Q: What sequence folds into this?
């Protein structure tokens, strides 16, 4: 069976109400609108950089390196992660497709011993990377109400993954993430390995020739903070390159402010390079290796 992602949900009000409070239902509608109408490109890019932040933590990058997925199947591993998350975001927490996606996510993670703090930190990047990116580069920042509901949405996402110790409010979660990064952003060879292969994959999507990838990595890292760059094992980009990169995104922001407000969803296409004919949700992600494989 092939499950090409053709969502039938065209407005946030069409999402099935999730089990829980009225606030959670509002959070789901808000997250859908932010991700697909208000900031589709920005949030897509922010979530790419969210993954990059997790690679600066040796316990996380080390596990990814040990699976071998980033050595042999980096494109598939990257696309599968994005597709599983997008299945939930596009179709609703309690949609049939989301339940199947959560089943795969939890089955994959259940095979490994992963510290709860690592789970919490990865979840925090999906909350704060989009908030911070949109605040810097979007046509407007998220409002305080939108930030709160974005947090509520991802907190529920984490609950459905079985993450323990979820924080009751966004300020406490931000404090946890900041302190985690101060303590746990430490260089390890696996940080460099995983981040380099992921950045090179994204550069290839933009048709950057391989011989230009070293410079392309510096350009990609020119908009992130020094502790992240150094923990990944790269040289911190020059002030000139940082100015060019931030200036280009600032120009885009200025242009977006002049354009009419988008009213219809804009889908970010993902997975086409790995699954040109479509995919089955149950076949996404990693599986135990069989003998001789």
A:
């Amino acid at each position: 069976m092939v499950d090409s992602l053709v969502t039938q949900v065209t407005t946030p009000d069409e999402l099935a109400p999730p089990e829980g409070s009225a606030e959670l239902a509002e959070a789901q509608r808000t997250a859908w609108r932010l991700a697909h109408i208000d900031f589709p490109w920005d949030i897509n890019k922010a979530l790419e950089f969210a993954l990059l932040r997790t690679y600066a933590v040796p316990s996380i990058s080390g596990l990814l390196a040990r699976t071998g997925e980033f050595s042999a199947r980096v494109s598939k591993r990257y696309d599968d992660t994005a597709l599983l998350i997008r299945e939930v975001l596009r179709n609703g927490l309690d949609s049939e497709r989301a339940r199947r996606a959560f089943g795969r996510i939890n089955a994959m993670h259940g095979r490994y011993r992963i510290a709860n703090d690592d789970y919490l930190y990865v979840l925090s990047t999906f909350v704060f990377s989009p908030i911070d990116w949109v605040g810097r580069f979007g046509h407007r920042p998220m409002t305080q109400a939108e930030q709160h509901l974005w947090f509520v949405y991802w907190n529920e996402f984490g609950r459905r993954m079985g993450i323990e110790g979820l924080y009751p409010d966004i300020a406490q979660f931000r404090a946890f993430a900041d302190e985690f990064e101060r303590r746990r952003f430490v260089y390890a060879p696996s940080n460099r390995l995983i981040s380099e292969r992921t950045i090179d994959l994204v550069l290839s999507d933009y048709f950057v020739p391989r011989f230009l990838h070293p410079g392309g990595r510096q350009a990609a890292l020119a908009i992130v903070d020094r502790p992240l760059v150094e923990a990944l094992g790269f040289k911190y980009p020059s002030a000139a390159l940082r100015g060019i990169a931030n200036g280009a995104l600032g120009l885009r922001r200025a242009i977006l402010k002049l354009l009419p407000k988008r009213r219809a969803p804009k889908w970010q296409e993902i997975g086409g390079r790995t699954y040109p004919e479509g995919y089955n949700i149950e076949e996404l992600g990693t599986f135990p290796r069989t003998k001789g494989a």
Q: What stands out?
A: The radius of gyration is 19 Å. The mean pLDDT is 90. The chain has 13 helices and no strands.
